[in-house]
Each structure stands twice: as C-alpha cells, then as structure tokens.
C-alpha cells in the first residue's frame, strides 16, 4: 500500500469513528444485525445475521420461546434453532423459517405444557415445534390463527391448527395447498382473504374462508381470484381489513372492501418500505425518516414523523400497538406510544419525542456468569432507568445470598402499621430493606443512605441487583454491549 493510500485509509477511519453515534449500549453484538423482526399482540421476536433467534415480551402462551410462560422483559435466545432467515409473529404465536426451507412454531397451540418440573412446576413450556408439512419454503406469514407459506417454486400452502382432539398440545396442524396462483413472492392474511404479491409486481386476492359453511375452505371448494393491482407493486401490509400497497415509484395505495380499487394515499410518497400495527400504518421513506398513521376511526389520519434527526434503514410491524426499526448503524429499535412489554427497551430508559412516541434500542440479551461459570434462570431480568433488576428466584442462591421476607413490629407513628422487610444475608453481612414510607435500608443494623428501589412488574417483583451487590460487597461487571453480567468475587 502506498503512503498516500495509507494516509487516506487513516483519514477515513477517523471520520467513521467520529460519525458513530454515542450511547448505543443496547445495540446488537458487534457484527450481528437483525435480518427479520416481527411482533405479536405484546411480544417480539428477531432473527439475527448469525442465524439465531431472540424473543421477548408477554409470554403466557410461551410465545417468547424461552421455555416458560413468564413474561420476558429482556430478550432471550430461543434454543434449538439455527440458520434462521425469517420470523413471523402475530397474536400469541411465533414462527421461524430456516435457510433450508423448514418452519418452526411456538406459542399458543404450539408450545406444550411440561408437568412436574422441579424448579417451575406450573410454568414450563415446550420449545419450538417443527411443522412437518412445510418443506422448501421461501417466505412465511401469519395472522395469529392461520399461516401461509410460500414455497421456493412460487406456490402457497395454508396451514392452521386443528383442535381435534381438544386440549392436546401441540395441536395437530392441517395443511392446504393453494395452487390457483403461481409466481408468488410474498403473502399476507387480511380477514378472510389471502393476498399474494407475485414476482411480476401484481397483487392477487383469494378468499380462504367458506362463509356459507362457516369454515376454512377446502381444496375441493371453488376458487375465485381477483386482481387488485396488475403491476409495479413492491410491498404490501395489512391490518384490521385495510390493505396498503407500495408502488415502485414510492407511492402508497390503500384498499378495503368498501373501495372498488386501490387509491393513492395523500402525503405518503417517496416511501421505501411499509408495515402495519393494530390500526396503524408504518412507513419508511427513502430519506430514512419514519412515519406513523392511525386509522382506528376509519379515516387514515395525517402521517406523523417519529423522532426527527435519526436515520432508519428498515422497519417491521406487529399485530399490537408497536413496531421495530433498524438504525443505519444496525441497532434494532423498538417504538410505540407506551412502554409495552413487546418493546424490550427498558422502562424509564427512553423518553418520548415531541409527538409522544418512544424510539429506543431493544435491549441486548443478558448472559450471566456466577463465580466464572455460566448461569441461567427461569425468570426475567429487566432494565429500568438504566439499572439492572432481577427477580428473587434468580442469581441470589447461586451467589450464596439468602433472601427472605418478614413483617416488622407495629410502628406507632402511622397507626401501628406493619411493613414488609426484605433480608439479604451474605457471609458476615446482612442487608435489610423495610418497605415503609420512607423506605429504610440498613447493613448489619446500621442505616444506609443508599437509594434502594424495588419495581413491581405485572408478574414479578424486581430487585435492584447492582445496589444489592454493592451493599453486600459482591463483585458485578455488566458489559452493556455484549450483555455479559459477571457476578462474584
């Protein structure tokens, strides 16, 4: 390399280092980027460039994929999956497509109950289930009840759970070939209809429900195909009966059964990609700006730009009131108008913009080490106001910390009331936290001014791990880029 080339290279590296945004502690691990993301009613799943899958959020049916029915506030790796190139979620189900063309499902109807688990007797769930009737698949989509798989030869297969016999998990899956349309690129389900985007840019509509017999159509039922657009369509998204099409010139079209043909949406041009949430349309413009439109009132309201000054390279939707975006540096962002469990951005860790919306990095999955050894637990950790919290049934036993609760003696000042007292015993130190007003913290009977905040999430009391370790003298190192949490001395 010549001296001139070397100087140019050094200058380029310096410029790049100055351009990298600060404060992206929750970004994906170096070199690993999201390739596909999807959200259900209140959970999210992501496929990464290394072929792994993470899940998080509301998890009562096992849809987060961690093997439990415990809500997961921080993403966890879905075990048993590799080489995944696409994910799809809706409602309380999740699906993953591998590069080999195989499909896996988990969540409602797919995750079996595991009885008599010694550590989690009533909340253990089975892992991903392979959908044996789907092979050589190139694309998948779901509405939470049904799914459509597009094969590598451009045809489609409808799949759905059968409840005969009832009460058995995972349920039997039925498959229905849809050979009437060929050359399919992608598909979606909108109400009782399947919509297909073909490789030549046309959009076809086909009913997948027999209204007279009140059932999903059979292969023997007559097929009626309608063409909604004949060419130039590059993307589509749908929710709650509304279909949105992206034309190659960047114009967004809207269609529902009250319209004879798709019509252009005013103000939505120069669009690069679109997706939907619950009565929401998300659009990414070619200049990297992110926009949101509501249509819960039946009228598509004027688009609102989300968080000005940030450059987005990709977006994904959900069946809930939130979505996901990828920053130009590869960071996966969650966004919405409330701190839903499906966001996994950490409560209090991000503020709303001038339009009232959150746009913040999805938290990095955590990997715990106790005294140098990898350690995992069933419950969910959380991050609140940038601080790390864990449930009682997590790392404390492995660290040798005895945790217990008791009730204080009557306090005459507030009318002889009693308070809950948490005790943490480690070696020769005893940390006690009296949940009075104000809260009282003491170590070996000596009062401490250290702030101690306990957070109660919908299914878990979360304890401030960093504060507890500090007061008990336990070492803690949390690498917010890699997600490694090293505990012990």
UniProtKB/TrEMBL annotation:
It comes from the Bacteria. It holds the Pfam family RCC1. Residues 1-28 form the signal peptide. Keywords: Signal. The keyword Signal applies. InterPro entries: Ran_GTPase-activating (IPR051553), RCC1/BLIP-II (IPR009091), Reg_chr_condens (IPR000408). This is Chromosome condensation regulator RCC1. It comes from Paenibacillus tritici.
């Amino acid at each position: 390399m010549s001296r001139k080339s070397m100087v140019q290279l050094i200058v380029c590296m310096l410029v790049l280092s100055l351009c990298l945004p600060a404060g992206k502690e929750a970004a994906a691990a170096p070199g690993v980027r999201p390739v596909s993301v999807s959200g259900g009613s209140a959970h999210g799943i992501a496929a990464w460039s290394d072929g792994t899958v993470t899940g998080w959020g509301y998890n009562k049916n096992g849809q987060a994929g961690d093997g439990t029915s415990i809500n997961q506030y921080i993403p966890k790796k879905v075990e048993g999956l590799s080489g995944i190139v696409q994910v799809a979620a809706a409602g309380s189900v999740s699906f993953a497509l591998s590069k080999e063309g195989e499909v896996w499902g988990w969540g409602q109807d797919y995750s079996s109950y595991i009885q008599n688990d010694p550590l989690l007797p009533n909340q253990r769930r089975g892992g991903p289930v392979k959908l044996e009737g789907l092979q050589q698949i190139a694309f998948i989509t779901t509405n939470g009840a049904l799914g459509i798989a597009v094969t590598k030869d451009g045809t489609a297969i409808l799949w759905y759970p059968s409840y005969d016999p009832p009460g058995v998990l995972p349920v039997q899956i039925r498959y229905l070939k849809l050979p009437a349309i060929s050359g399919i690129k992608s598909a979606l389900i909108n109400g009782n209809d399947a919509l297909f985007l073909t490789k030549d840019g046309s959009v076809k509509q086909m009913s997948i429900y027999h209204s007279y017999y009140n059932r999903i159509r059979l292969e023997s039922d007559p097929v009626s195909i309608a063409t909604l657009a004949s060419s130039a369509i590059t993307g589509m998204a749908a929710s709650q009966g509304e279909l949105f099409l992206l034309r190659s010139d960047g114009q967004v079209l809207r269609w529902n059964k009250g319209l004879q043909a798709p019509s252009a949406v005013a103000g939505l041009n120069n669009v690069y990609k679109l997706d939907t949430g619950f009565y929401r349309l998300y659009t990414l413009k070619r200049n990297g700006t992110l926009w949101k439109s509501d249509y819960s009132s039946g009228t598509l309201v004027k688009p609102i730009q989300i968080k000005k000054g940030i450059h987005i390279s990709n977006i994904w939707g959900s069946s809930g009131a939130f979505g996901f975006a990828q920053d130009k540096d590869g960071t996966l962002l969650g966004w919405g108008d409330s701190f839903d469990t499906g966001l996994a951005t950490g409560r209090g860790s991000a503020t709303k913009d001038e339009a009232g919306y959150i746009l913040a990095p999805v938290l990095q999955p955590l990997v715990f080490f106790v005294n140098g050894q990898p350690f995992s637990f069933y419950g969910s950790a959380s991050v609140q106001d940038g601080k790390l919290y864990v449930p009682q049934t997590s790392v404390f036993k492995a660290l040798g910390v005895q945790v217990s609760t008791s009730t204080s003696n009557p306090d005459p000042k507030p009318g002889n009331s009693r308070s809950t007292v948490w005790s943490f015993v480690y070696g020769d130190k005893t940390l006690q936290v009296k949940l009075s007003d104000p809260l009282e913290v003491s170590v070996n009977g000596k009062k401490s001014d250290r702030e101690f905040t306990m957070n109660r999430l919908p299914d878990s009391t979360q304890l401030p791990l960093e504060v507890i370790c500090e007061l008990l003298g336990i070492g803690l190192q949390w690498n917010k880029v890699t997600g490694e949490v090293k505990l012990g001395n």
